[in-house]
Write a structure and sequence with these properties.
8 helices; 6 strands
Length: 241
């Protein structure tokens, strides 16, 4: 558990960290297990890293849990992932007890009503916490999010509420799922893959990236500490000198 490991002294921590939880299936395959066992193990890592983020003073941490493309996976695997979501929302009281705010981003229309209701209840129960917000991206895709924002703005243009000359990057940002969440500063991706995979592509315009070969279920609190420490060693100029 994160609480058993000393918290390092860090000069700088990112305000918003994005995590692409990758490698669950490969972790299970290496052990001769069905892929769903990797997802179950990955949940343990997710919970430990969320707690560590709060300990380090990170204000926002977004986990890429299920993409709009993940529906292409075998039905048994998708069903087990959705069952895991429901089970862990039943157990999310732990996060609420620790005063961690919980948010969800993505298209909820394809999710079961039971899951959507649990998501709403969880958000409502934790909305007053301000130290750390954990965001779970479920049925989320960056391109889909931008497309949705464009449709919403287009509807306002059609209704005469907005003129096309008034459309700015700020306006688009305000119509994303993350409208009240700051841009992502740092994206961590384990498992050896080196791509965004359609994750927060608008919000990551100036993000730093951290890639590691460690599979997500094996990604420890110490590995997270190491990644955050490296962030503090980087120079962010945002296009300046």
């Amino acid at each position: 558990m994160a609480k058993d490991i000393a918290v390092p002294e860090l000069d700088t921590v990112p305000v918003h960290v994005g995590v692409i939880m990758d490698g669950n299936g490969r972790w299970a395959k290496k052990r001769g297990l069905p892929r769903k066992f990797g997802h179950r193990e990955g949940v343990k890592t997710f919970r430990a890293i969320t707690r560590r983020a709060k300990q380090l003073g990170i204000k926002y941490i977004t986990f890429y849990a299920f993409s709009t493309e993940n529906w292409k996976r075998p039905k048994d695997e998708v069903d087990s992932i959705m069952a895991l979501f429901e089970k862990n929302l039943d157990e999310v009281k732990d996060f609420i007890d620790e005063e961690i705010r919980v948010r969800f981003i993505g298209d909820r229309t394809a999710l079961s009503e039971t899951l959507r209701e649990k998501m709403r209840n969880t958000e409502e129960s934790s909305k007053h916490f301000t130290d750390t917000t954990m965001i779970l991206a479920i049925n989320y895709g960056g391109q889909d999010e931008i497309c949705n924002a464009v449709k919403r703005i287009s509807e306002k243009v059609k209704n005469g509420e907005v003129d096309t000359s008034e459309i700015t990057t700020e306006m688009i940002t305000e119509h994303l799922y993350t409208e009240d969440i700051p841009p992502v500063d740092y994206i961590i991706r384990p498992s050896g893959e080196m791509r965004l995979s359609n994750f927060m592509i608008w919000q990551a315009a100036y993000a730093e990236y951290y890639f590691t070969n460690i599979l997500w279920p094996d990604f420890s609190v110490a590995d997270f500490d190491k990644a955050i420490k490296e962030y503090g060693d980087r120079s962010r100029r945002f296009g300046g000198v």
